[in-house]
Write a structure and sequence with these properties.
Arc Repressor Mutant, subunit A, single chain, 3 domains, Fic-like fold, 4 strands, 57% helix, 457 residues, mainly alpha, two-stranded parallel sheet
Length: 457
């Protein structure tokens, strides 16, 4: 029996990192497609990792999948990594950004107060100016885009279940939310039945609702003022004392903790500048540059009384969504790194740190969601064989209010496949939502009534 201990062989480590990044069990075919390696080699590495306790095998035959164990996480965590300076996050600034980061560590009293500078937005000319280094924007677009000719929003819908958890948790964590990633997953599974609605819970549920709204609205309406304002209202629902601050342009002074930057407090200027930002982002041809432009400028403008950084993070996904690029989840970002990137923009209109943070988080997002998407693209033979039967079962349960037992009795299924197909049907019913019910020819209203009734089956 093969026993692997860190450091792992490069091929073993690469495959193990892919399985961990996916966050879901993967089929050998998906790993072969991503790693561009022969199937016998993939099978041999999988056997080694399973024998070492790093992978767990699920299913048999063509339904075989592999998921990482706790031992795998410990093994990868034991691998050497670059030293991190005390007080810093995971990201290490390059020589280009380090002077900016050092300057921003100076005490507040030694930094010169600054106000909003309209030229930061006004001087930007789409497709002539570039906040990202042009070649980096091209490289990230090439790495993150889908090669398939599909309708806008298809990529994000394919990975939406995982993105809802990742982006909601990471964005909330940057706001000081104390819920864990596992707490977030369990909360989204329970929904409004999760228990007491404290501020952390509301923040996470609001993120989930806002992302679902954005995924539905942007492919239909594009990037508009109404969509952006509605996004802020979804994010801040029940979290602000004054309801007039929800879904409206700011009409009061805001201060940014830990910064000497004072945003503009003129409502007409805020509204007109936000319109300018939206108009310019709609004309930027490279969606990665557009995502960065939107993220940085919404945060710099501070157009709302609260929720500006949350709105900027979620809205950065809008251009990516329209061009079927991997979404941006902001996973693995440490608050000190994020603060440095934002302060550089606020106080010096210097995007050097923001560029490096954006590249770091987007490359990680590309890796995670391309792996997840590839795993979803490998058809499950059982699902393929019973595709029509599953469709009928879902309609019988949701539309005709039949029990799952009755539905299975009404649809012809081989006895040998009955148990496995029941597991699939229960999983599909657990995950059925308004945004994905169309694949079973179910109407949104009907599906929501079934969900509200407690998902009876």
């Amino acid at each position: 029996m093969t026993t692997l201990t860190p450091p792992l062989a490069p091929r073993h480590e690469a495959l193990l990192r892919l399985v961990l990044a996916a966050g879901a069990p993967l089929q050998p075919g998906a790993l072969q497609q991503i790693l561009q390696t022969s199937r016998p080699t993939i099978n041999r590495v999988l056997r080694d990792l399973q024998a070492s306790g790093f992978l767990e095998r699920l299913g048999d035959g063509r339904s075989t999948r592999y998921m990482a164990t706790d031992a795998a996480k410990a093994a990868l965590g034991a691998l050497p990594s670059p030293p991190t300076p005390a007080g810093a996050g995971l990201l290490q600034w390059s020589p280009a950004a380090l002077p900016l980061a050092e300057t921003l560590r100076a005490p507040l009293g030694t930094r010169t107060p600054v106000g909003f500078e309209s030229s930061f937005v006004g001087s930007y000319i789409p497709n002539q100016s570039s906040l990202l280094p042009p070649q980096l924007a091209i490289d990230l677009f090439s790495a993150g885009r889908s090669r398939d000719q599909l309708p806008a929003g298809t990529y994000v819908r394919e990975v939406l279940e995982q993105l809802l958890i990742d982006l909601s948790w990471s964005s909330s964590r940057l706001e000081g939310n104390n819920k864990s990633l596992l707490d977030t997953k369990e909360l989204f599974e329970l929904g409004e039945q999760a228990g007491p609605m404290d501020e952390d819970t509301l923040m996470l549920l609001n993120h989930k609702n806002a992302i679902e709204f954005m995924v539905d609205a942007v492919p239909k309406d594009g990037i508009t003022m109404h969509v952006l304002v509605d996004l802020q209202s979804k994010l801040m629902k029940d979290l602000l004392k004054d309801s007039r601050d929800i879904g409206s342009i700011r009409r009061r002074v805001v201060n940014i903790d830990g910064s000497v930057y004072s945003p503009s407090n003129i409502p007409t200027l805020l509204e007109e500048t936000l319109k300018t930002i939206i108009d310019k982002v709609r004309h930027i041809r490279n969606p990665v540059e557009a995502a960065f432009f939107l993220w940085v400028n919404v945060a710099y403008l501070q157009p709302f009384a609260d929720g500006n950084k949350r709105t900027s993070r979620l809205s950065a996904n809008m251009p990516l969504m329209l061009y079927n690029c991997a979404p941006l989840s902001f996973l693995d970002v440490e608050r000190p790194d994020y603060a440095t990137a934002m302060l550089g923009v606020y106080e010096q209109r210097n995007v050097a740190a923001a560029v490096e943070l954006f590249e770091f988080i987007y490359r990680r997002s590309i890796q995670k969601y391309s792996v997840l998407r590839a795993s979803l693209s490998v058809p499950d033979p059982l699902r393929t064989r019973y595709r029509q039967a599953l469709n009928e079962i879902m309609q019988l349960v949701v539309f005709y209010s039949r029990t799952l037992d009755d539905a299975f009795f009404a649809v012809p299924i081989d006895a040998v496949d009955l148990a496995a197909l029941r597991v699939i049907a229960n999983t599909e019913l657990d995950h059925l939502e308004q945004y994905n019910c169309a694949r079973y020819n179910l109407a949104r209203g009907m599906t929501q009534r079934w969900i509200d009734a407690g998902r009876p089956r």
